[in-house]
Amino acid sequence: MNKLEGFYELNKVGLPSVPWKKFANGITLDENVLWTVRSAVLVGDDMNLPRKVGVSAGEAKNFAENLINSLSDNGMVLYYPFFVAEKSGMIEVSINKVIIEAVRNDLWNLVTLNNRDVTVISDYNSVTELFGNEDFLESSEISELLKYSNRVKMKYKNLLIEGQSLFLEWSYSFCSDINKNPIGDRSLVFYEIRSVS
């Protein structure tokens, strides 16, 4: 399952996900917010594809239009409003347990810098182990993440029985103003789901 398939799957499962849309030439972007533009291929490897994160409407539009020409028929360009992450992390969903890793602010602090504030392990019913700052995630946040993990488990049970795991990327985030300041209410958003053997 590549990133594009993952975006569709997040919607199918009913997880709150980024409000992405397919970019096409002629689309006008709101200049009062920042934008994220991603390339997605229909088939094949989609790691490290070109993207712009948290850029102005003009820069996002120019980048997206150039990207459309380079992708040809093997992909599409996605765009959505930039968000400011307060907490982010990864969830591993397997047949018997869920592992939640969380970090302050952006997910890159976890995946690139290898920082981690807390790791929570659950059997889907209750927390069985907790490592790190046990106050980092509120109990309501853990419950919410487990609720969606259980939904993923039920949807992909056959895949999990075969020994595969699913990885989800998530953030508790805010909309952003033009200066990358958080605005509005905080919400949970998922932006990737992948199967791993």
Task: Describe the 3D structure.
By secondary structure, the protein is α+β, with helices and mostly antiparallel strands. The chain has 5 helices and 10 strands. A 6-stranded antiparallel beta sheet has the order 8-7-6-5-9-10. A 4-stranded antiparallel beta sheet has the order 1-4-2-3, with helices on one face. A hairpin with a 5-residue loop joins β9 (165-176) and β10. The protein starts with a helix and ends with a strand.
Task: Compose a concise summary of this entry.
The chain is an alpha+beta fold and 197 residues long.
How is the topology of this model organized?
Layout: H1 3-13, E1 21-22, E2 35-41, E3 51-55, H2 57-71, E4 75-81, E5 83-93, E6 98-104, H3 108-111, E7 118-122, E8 127-132, H4 139-155, H5 157-161, E9 165-176, E10 182-196
Backbone shape: globular
H/E element sequence: HEEEHEEEHEEHHEE
With strands numbered from the N-terminus, the spatial order across the biggest sheet is 8-7-6-5-9-10
How many strands, what sense, and barrel or not for the largest sheet?
6 strands, antiparallel
Pairing-aware structural class of the strands and helices? alpha+beta
Query: Low-confidence runs (pLDDT<50, min 5 residues)?
Result: none
Beta-strand content: 35-45%
Radius of gyration: 17 Å
Instruction: Give the overall pLDDT as a whole number.
Output: 91
Helical content stands at 25-40%
Number of helices: 5
Head-to-tail CA distance between termini: 11 Å
Instruction: Please report the total strand number as a whole number.
Output: 10
